[in-house]
Amino acid sequence: VSIGNICRSPIAEAVFRKLVTDAKLENKWRTDSAAVSDWNVGRFPDSRALSCLRNHGIETAHKARQITKEDFQTFDHILCMDESNLRDLNRKSNQVKDCKAKIELLGTYDPQKQLIIEDPYYGSEKDFETVYEQCLRCCKAFLEKYH
């Protein structure tokens, strides 16, 4: 989960989905991404995010959506990118009866200990590549822990 669901979270979703597919674990995982805001609902990921993913052989057909109460009741894990997302998600989860999701920063799984995945929106292609690399490290470590 990220602010607008067009940069960081779609990259993380696509990376995790590829890792799961490559490991032949698709039937064990339901993967999605969402936003805490409704700013970009229905939009495709940022063109720089799509380009970065394509450079790594990953495609996505994701369209931005806002997180729902059902997400908190359905998913076992909700991973987010920064402290602001974490605060918003914890606030929203407190309003959900039967919240089962464990909410945490994706960066807690980073072997390089980079806790925050910075928003690359106002940056360059290099910033999107940094996000990709962080997401790859974190998603690999997350999958190893929970597989």
Task: Summarize the model shown.
This protein is mainly α and 147 residues long. It has helices at residues 8-22, 47-55, 69-74, 83-93, 125-146, and strands at 77-80, 102-105. Strand 1 (77-80), helix 4 (83-93) and strand 2 (102-105) form a beta-alpha-beta unit.
Describe this structure in words.
This protein has one domain (8-146): Rossmann fold, CATH 3.40.50.2300. Helix content is 43%, strand content 5%. It is built from 5 helices and 2 strands, in the order H-H-H-E-H-E-H. The protein has helices spanning 8-22, 47-55, 69-74, 83-93, 125-146; strands at 77-80, 102-105. A two-stranded parallel ribbon has the order 1-2. Strand 1, helix 4 and strand 2 form a beta-alpha-beta unit. It is globular and about 40 Å long.
Primary descriptors:
147 residues, protein phosphatase, LMW_PTPase, Rossmann fold, EC 3.1.3.2, mainly alpha, cytoplasm
Topology at a glance:
Elements: H1 8-22, H2 47-55, H3 69-74, E1 77-80, H4 83-93, E2 102-105, H5 125-146
Parallel strand pairs: 1-2
Helix pairs in contact: 1-5, 2-5
Function: Acts on tyrosine phosphorylated proteins, low-MW aryl phosphates and natural and synthetic acyl phosphates.
Domain Phosphotyrosine protein phosphatase I: 1-145
Family: Belongs to the low molecular weight phosphotyrosine protein phosphatase family.
From the N-terminal CA to the C-terminal CA, the straight-line distance is 21 Å
Which residues sit in consecutive blocks of at least 5 with pLDDT less than 50?
Answer: none
Say how many strands there are: 2
Task: Say what the CATH topology is.
Answer: Rossmann fold
Integer average pLDDT: 97
Q: How big is the Rg?
A: 14 Å
Subcellular location: Cytoplasm
Catalytic activity: O-phospho-L-tyrosyl-[protein] + H2O = L-tyrosyl-[protein] + phosphate; a phosphate monoester + H2O = an alcohol + phosphate
Function: Acts on tyrosine phosphorylated proteins, low-MW aryl phosphates and natural and synthetic acyl phosphates.
Protein name: Low molecular weight phosphotyrosine protein phosphatase
